[in-house]
Design a protein that fits this description.
Order of helices and strands: HHHEEEEEEEEEEEEEEEEEE
CATH architecture: Beta Barrel
CATH superfamily: Outer membrane protein transport protein (OMPP1/FadL/TodX)
Number of domains: 1
Shape: globular
Helix content: under 10%
Mean pLDDT: 86
Radius of gyration: 20 Å
Strand order of the largest sheet: 1-2-3-4-5-6-7-10-11-14-15-16-17-18
Largest sheet: 14 strands, antiparallel, barrel
Number of strands: 18
Length: 326
């Protein structure tokens, strides 16, 4: 009971303390820096970003740093996503090092939208083209205390829009808990707390998010193929996300949900600890309702691919990632 009481106390501190100390906002400005909300690896994207309680290696640095100390091995991950319809490219590189009950992580995350036409008058041919760039450098620390883990990430952030640029600082904090011989994992994360310098005349507000998630190994069985048995494992991963950026009333620092909460849910089938097949679903208002993905484990290398169809003519995005376990 003491462990569960500690879990509840830490969760309460996770929600209340950072909101009072770290989020500075005013007015009804919309958020930016949304590249921080897109799961940085193809593994996450194939599950529609349901990742608050799912072990996905170095991605947890940006998603829930408490998960880092639950990883069994050290790992390094490279990931790349391209969205041709908008000329958007996202890149991620991260590494996790485990030492006993502790884990350390470092990662780079960037987003580039290129070839944006620049016009000073309504003409057929643009005067030129420019790019919008986002960049983040992050470091994490996580510690396990029995089945409970806690973690925190600090981030340096940078954005550039045409000739204007700004930097800022942010942080993520999270909790994770193993249950039922590690067949069930619960997680909670408060992401993208912090502030940016002014970009031109207005500071971009970070997309602060409170997420709760679960990863459940739902069904495990074996099927026969010739003389060998092939083990199969079905897992269900679900997140509930609450945006926390809209100001309510006139009291400075009063923070409520920017909109209704929404679910991200994913289903994963693991075949013989070698092949993973994934599908994901997002609720609420979104241009990316479904996602699909696959993973292949070969020796110490784990290759992942995600297929992300967008609605309303926004085309399809593709993501690939390679994780090396050592």
């Amino acid at each position: 009971m003491n462990r569960y009481r500690a879990f509840a106390t830490l969760m309460l501190m996770l929600v209340i303390f950072p909101l009072n100390r770290l989020v500075v906002a005013s007015g009804s400005q919309s958020t930016g820096m949304h590249f921080l909300l897109l799961g940085p690896s193809a593994h996450n994207m194939g599950l529609s970003d349901a990742h608050t309680a799912s072990l996905t290696g170095a991605s947890a640095i940006y998603l829930n740093p408490a998960l880092l100390s639950m990883e069994n091995r050290n790992s390094a991950t490279l990931s790349y996503m391209i969205w041709p319809a908008t000329d958007t490219q996202n890149s991620f590189a991260g590494m996790v090092y485990n030492k006993g009950r502790q884990a350390f992580g470092i990662a780079l995350l960037s987003s580039l939208s290129d070839n944006i036409p620049l016009r000073t008058n309504p003409t057929t041919n643009p005067d030129g083209f420019f790019a919008v760039r986002y960049f983040s450098l992050a470091g994490s620390y996580s510690r396990a205390m029995g089945p409970l883990s806690i973690g925190v990430t600090g981030m340096y952030l940078y954005e550039q829009f045409f000739r204007d640029h700004a930097s800022g600082l942010g942080m993520n904090a999270g909790l994770a808990l193993h249950l039922l011989e590690e067949r069930v994992r619960l997680g909670a994360a408060l992401k993208n707390l912090g502030s940016m310098e002014e970009l031109a005349e207005t500071a971009t507000r970070l997309p602060t998010m409170l997420s709760f998630g679960t990863d459940i190994q739902l069904l495990q069985f074996s099927t026969s193929a010739i003389e060998d048995e092939i083990p199969l494992l079905f897992s269900v991963i679900v997140d509930y996300n609450i945006p926390l950026n809209e100001i309510s009333g006139t009291e400075e620092g009063s923070i409520v949900s920017q909109g209704d909460g929404y679910f991200n849910a994913g289903l994963e089938l693991n075949i013989s600890d070698i092949i993973d097949l994934r599908a994901g679903l997002r609720s609420g208002e979104t241009q990316r309702r479904f996602s699909f993905g696959a993973g292949l484990l070969f020796s110490d290398f784990y290759f992942n691919y995600a297929f992300l169809p967008f609605s309303d003519g926004f085309g399809v995005a593709h993501a690939v990632s390679l994780q090396y376990n050592f």
